[in-house]
């Protein structure tokens, strides 16, 4: 009983882990695919607005992105044309030298992979700029061209990637085959073309495809070497930095579709080669019938998939979402009008509550001012001077600082206060002793 419960718990954990793994792996792709068909100007799934295919057209109309795409394709083809022969040459050199020298040469050839792309980009500019100044070239020459510098910078490390692919393939090669061909009278060139090259055919295809992808997606080196130009990767990074829109999701849909079509064709090719190699193709029902044989052929599968993709593209181009967008705009305008009306009503209600009532008598102050109303809000109005409030704390100066003591018609006569401590000088310093006598 305990063993069955443990196996059930382990099975549930494995299922949950698998679901989380695939959700993490394919979740972003699914989300981007859905956002490519939402009419919202920001990539999102909810709230859903209208189904549209206009973002694919917006992607194609982006001149900077399309110009960068053409530049990346040209640079990628050049990188493949240079990196694959260099990688093959390095792999063949490593397979022919002694073991001690092979270790040193391998370390030298593998260094560009370990160098950061930023360092490669800056060093490429500095090196070829020095070469251009050495030969007296101007700033409009090839040594200051962004496409040439990007091609040179990418080849330095992509060739090392291609070399690793060829090294892995050459480890399975039997050198006695070329020795037998040489013994039978073949020249070294013939032995290379007719024995070694067919064996390296899969590695050449893999190295070329890897070099193309590495060149196409490289950013760290390209952002320095391209100078004022743009590749597809740098233009895409600039677009994301300045603000994204669903046209990037449309680009992701195109990349996903191309990848799936290529993977299906490659899988069909591998299965066909396996059947032919084992001899089961002649006994299989799929290959005895001409129709099924053509349908299972990689070329036939490619034609079917491309036809389905073309049909979907045509159906998407015929879809018109203008009516849905017009209705959506009307709905948004109605919502805005309703919100503005509610805001006006709230403002009017606040104004009505803030206006004082004419019949409401003024409320007496519970905290009388000790200054007798001198700082009252209505104290400065002409003819409306407030009466001084009776002081509950009489001044010790006998009213000399009373606000009404300075009025010209109401100046009170000073009352002499008898001194409790008579002056030893008599009345000589009395304030009234200096007045002229009548």
TrEMBL record:
One Pfam match: BPD_transp_1
GO terms under biological process: transmembrane transport
Compositional bias per record (Pro residues), positions renumbered to this chain: 411-421
Low complexity bias locations: 368-384, 394-410
Keyword rRNA processing: no
Record key words, sorted: Cell membrane, Membrane, Transmembrane, Transmembrane helix, Transport
UniProt GO cellular component terms: plasma membrane
UniProt protein name: Spermidine/putrescine transport system permease protein
Record lineage: Bacteria, Pseudomonadati, Pseudomonadota, Alphaproteobacteria, Hyphomicrobiales
